[in-house]
Amino acid sequence: MEIIIHPTVKEASEEAARLIAKHISNKPDAVIGLATGSTPLPLYRALIEMKLDWSHVTTFNLDEYIGLPREHPQTYHSFMWENLFRHTNIKAENVNIPDGNAAAIPAHCAEYEKRILVAGGIDIQVLGIGSDGHIGFNEPTSSLASRTRIKTLTKQTIEDNARFFGSTEEVPKHVITMGIGTIMDARQNILLAFGQNKAKAIAGAVEGPITAVNPASALQMHAVTKVFLDDAAAGELERANYFRWVHDNKPDWQKI
Pseudo-torsion of CA 148, 152, 157, 158, nearest 10°? Predict the structure, then answer.
């Protein structure tokens, strides 16, 4: 796990964008896993500005609400097309987002896993982290070996997401999410976290024990995970100065 700390969200997001752009340049048919929410928005804006060729890229989204009409403004289908896809030349048939209105949710989840395998697996998975340490919608106590499945959201997550809806009552209680095992299968993970409200979760995920109570802590066992933080999100890391020193003193061939 590599911890990369920048003073601002913009700087951290731009470095993460350069990493993804480099991968797409080297592998035009890259398979990229994507996240939603406010955290990756600066990353997506940076990628749009780079005017990359997405024509052969395949994407898989982490999750989706269950029960919202597909065109509802708060579905992750709407989010991704509004904030990234429509600004690129990606082909619609190469976009994969869980179907929150599937007739048989368990069967759809199994099929989603198969589609990832058929695509060759995910090269880079973009992740955010919840204030309780969840990644995707793998809430605390989720199995660290879990696969794509239905999950019930915690009250904390519903409250955190209520700002996107009119009230907590309007937030769906159930979602489809890639499992932690699915995330761990990606060849590389990029975790983004910004703001003081993520500092405790990041400290637990990076420096705490590996535990299902902080699902993001499983990434300590992943071979290639890069964690991009602003100063505020790094605020509770005991080794923050060491992480900064490592990043600043990389050999040129390791720099992004």
Answer: 130
pLDDT more than 70, % of the chain: 100
In angstroms, the Cα distances linking 236 to 87, 214, 231 are 36, 15, 10
CA distance 153 to 181: 19
Domains of the chain from N-terminus onward: 2-249 (3.40.50.1360)
The residue annotated as part of the active site, out of 63, 64, 123, 160, is 63
Identified catalytic residue from 64, 132, 160, 230: 132
Sign of CA dihedral 83, 86, 90, 93: positive
Q: Is 63 a catalytic residue?
A: yes
Q: Assess whether pLDDT exceeds 90 at residue 19.
A: yes
Among the listed residues 14, 139, 185, 230, the single catalytic one is 139
Do you know the residue count of the chain? 256
Instruction: Kindly state the tokens that stand for 237.
Output: 């890391």
pTM of the predicted structure, to 2 decimals? 0.95
Catalytic (active site) residue 160: no
Instruction: Establish whether 139 is a catalytic residue.
Output: yes
* Helical spans, DSSP H, in the chain: 9-26, 41-49, 76-83, 105-118, 155-161, 180-185, 199-207, 240-248
- Backbone φ, ψ for residue 129 (5° rounding): -140, 135
What burial class does residue 230 get, using C-beta atoms within 10 Å of its C-beta: 0-12 exposed, 13-18 middle, 19+ buried? Answer: buried
The pair of three-digit structure tokens given for residue 190, joined into one six-digit string:
């990029």
